[in-house]
Amino acid sequence: MLNEIAAGEDIFLEEHDVIVSKTDLKGRILYVNETFRRISQFSEQELVGEPHSIIRHADMPRCIFKLLWQKLEADEEVFAYVKNRCKNGDYYWVFAHVTPSYDSTGKKVGYHSNRRVPPQDERGVIESLYRFLKDIEESYANKKEGMQAAYDILRGMLKEQGTSYDQFIFEFASFLSRETIDGFLNDYRPATHTISQTQNG
Ligand SMILES: Cc1cc2nc3c(=O)[nH]c(=O)nc-3n(C[C@H](O)[C@H](O)[C@H](O)COP(=O)(O)O)c2cc1C
Fold first, then answer.
1. Per-residue pLDDT reduced to its tens digit, 8-45
2. Which strand (E) or helix (H) includes residue 116?
3. What is the pTM of this model?
4. pLDDT by residue (tens digit) across 82-103?
5. Which residue, among 190, 192, 199, 57, has the nearest Cα to 132 in the 3D structure?
6. Does domain 2-116 bear CATH number 3.40.50.300?
7. Which atom of ligand 1 is nearest to the CA of 98?
8. Which atom of ligand 1 is nearest to the CA of 56?
9. Nearest CA owner, ligand 1 atom 22
10. Contacts of 79 by beta carbon, 8 Å cutoff, 6+ apart
11. How far is the CA of 28 from the centre of ligand 1 (A)?
């Protein structure tokens, strides 16, 4: 499966690149702009009508998407770092702003995402955070349980710090170094949880 390709080249966006997509309420792609097609290497025909997970990269923790959908379903906007895959297995990091879209009667009809290049210094911090969450998810044989465990740890961590995911990104990621975040995350790593303990879970 293309999604399982772990290697690939890191594709950097230019400052002026804005990747845009619109979806229906289920996340099925309705529109992509030219920049989306150019960077993802997928054609319009390959994207429109497909679930947005067509560009999901295997390194992305599932719990981040759970957080994203919870906010969207609660009519909230979301800011998130996302690693996406290109058709040929290359990948690119984006800083995404995702919002619900409404028709003239105020009914929610879909979602809209604008993505830009993330600040380079924040990327290392986010990569550490996502690797930490992904490790937790993968230490469970059952994917749903793994996602829930990582999600609970993320929520607990943010609550203890008195922050939200968005706030974490805006206020913490810009001044934390990768070493600091690695040390910080270690404090939250489940001490007794090992793959062998959950093999049957
Ligand atoms: C407007 C919008 C934009 C999205 N953009 C992305 C994206 O760029 N990359 C991505 O992997 N998922 C994106 N998603 C989330 C996907 O719908 C999906 O939840 C995610 O890829 C995980 O899919 P999976 O649970 O089927 O593995 C977006 C969702 C919406 C509503």
1. 999 999 999 999 999 999 999 999 999 999 999 999 99
2. strand 108-116
3. 0.90
4. 999 999 999 999 999 999 999 9
5. 190
6. no
7. 1
8. 11
9. 53
10. 95, 96, 97, 166, 169, 170
11. 9
**Cα 84 to averaged position of ligand 1 atoms, centre (Å):** 9
- Are 57 and 64 spatial neighbours (Cβ–Cβ below 8 Å)? no
Identify the pLDDT of residue 86: 98
Residues within a 6 A CB radius of ligand 1: 21, 23, 27, 52-53, 55-56, 60, 65, 72, 82, 84, 98, 111-113
What pLDDT score does 1 carry? 42
Q: What is the pLDDT of residue 192?
A: 56
Q: Which atom of ligand 1 lies closest to the CA of 19?
A: 8
| CA 157 / ligand 1 centre spacing (Å) | 24
**What is the torsional sign of CA 55, 57, 60, 62?**
positive
In this structure, the residue with its CA closest to atom 5 of ligand 1 is: 52
Burial call 126-150: b when 16+ CB within 10 Å, e when fewer: bbbbbebbbebbebbeeeeebbbbb
What is the per-residue pLDDT for 186? 85
Domain with CATH 3.30.450.20 in the chain: 2-116
